[in-house]
Amino acid sequence: EIVMTQSPATLSVSPGERATLSCRASQSVSSNLAWYQQKPGQAPRLLIYFASTRAPAIPARFSGSGSGTEFTLTISSLQSEDFAVYYCQQYNNWPPYTFGQGTKLEIK
Amino acid sequence: QVQLVESGGDLVKPGGSLRLSCAASGFTFSNYYMNWIRQAPGKGLEWVSYINRGGSSIYYADSVKGRFTISRDNAKNSLYLQMSSLTADDTAVYYCARESHGGTRLGNDLDFWGRGTLVTVSS
Q1: Would you say residue B102 has pLDDT above 90?
Q2: Alpha-carbon torsion (B62, B68, B71, B76), positive or negative
Q3: Is A87 within 8 Å of B45 when comparing Cβ atoms?
Q4: Phi/psi zone of residue B42: left (φ > 0), alpha (ψ -120 to 50 degrees), beta?
Q5: Per-residue pLDDT tens over the stretch B54-76
Q6: Mutate which of A97, A101, A103 to disrupt the B interface (most B C-beta within 10 Å)?
Q7: Which residues in B lie closer than 8 A to residue A92 (C-beta atoms)?
Q8: How would residue B103 be classed by pLDDT, with cut points 50, 70 and 90?
Q9: Which of A32, B14, B17, B94 has a 20 to 30 Å separation from B101 between CA atoms?
Q10: Lowest-pLDDT range, A27-31, B59-63, B103-107, B118-122?
């Protein structure tokens, strides 16, 4: 089973600033990695797939990069609605699909 | 628009059973692979089970294997999860989620999720 590790667990950033979230896989997942955003009481929403492709209707301030074992989600200029928990998921070696433990992005 | 609506969550005693349903609309359900994902209170996401378009290929997480059964009825646009021998560790919100790419490849991200249904296992 591939273990996904996200860092940091909590990230405090001011609105308008850049946020950088990391996700590491225990072995290569190629580019088969997705990022999700989850707000309290809501279902996760797909942001990025294939490591760097934005899902439909996702603002351009969200970008993903990386391949193999190291991945990054960058939010270029944080808006109030971006404060949430973010998860990465690998879908290269499955079953099982595995998720990172999440990074909580909070207002500084 | 794509909609997934879960139902069937409830309070159940340890050792009990429950059947969850997920009603799909706004897309051709039979064309898509489907999954159940769960989230324990205050915790992260855990993949539970997968089913392909026709139901001939099914996978489970080790934590539920032998106790949970996934199925689908394409004529009713519905996905199911039959759960038995429930324990406190099964307490979670259960989401049904659609895989991207319309069943054209194996291994996918999850592009649409329902709002979830809460299963609480407690005496």
Answers
A1: no
A2: negative
A3: yes
A4: left
A5: 999 999 999 999 999 999 999 99
A6: A97
A7: 107
A8: confident
A9: B94
A10: B103-107
> Between chains, do B113 and A45 touch, taking CB under 8 Å as contact?
yes
Tell me: pLDDT of B105 over 90: no
Interface residue of B5, B96, B108, B109 to substitute, partner A, most A CBs within 10 Å: B109
Output DSSP code: residue A97: P
Residue A30 has pLDDT above 80, yes or no: yes
Is A34 close to B113, i.e. CB distance below 8 A? no
Looking at CA atoms only, how far is residue B85 from chain A in angstroms?
Answer: 21
B109 contacts A91? CB cut-off 8 A: yes
3-state secondary structure of B123: coil
Please state, rounded to an integer, the average pLDDT across all residues of chain B.
Answer: 97
The partner residues of A22 in beta bridges, in order of sequence, read A7, A72
Q: State the Cα–Cα distance between residues A29 and A66, nearest whole angstrom.
A: 10
Report chain B residues touching chain A, CB-CB < 8 A. 35, 44-47, 50, 59-62, 95, 100, 107-116
Residue A54: phi and psi, rounded to 5, are -70, 140
Rg (CA), chain B: 14
Contact assessment for residue A34 and residue A46, using Cβ atoms and an 8 Å cutoff: yes
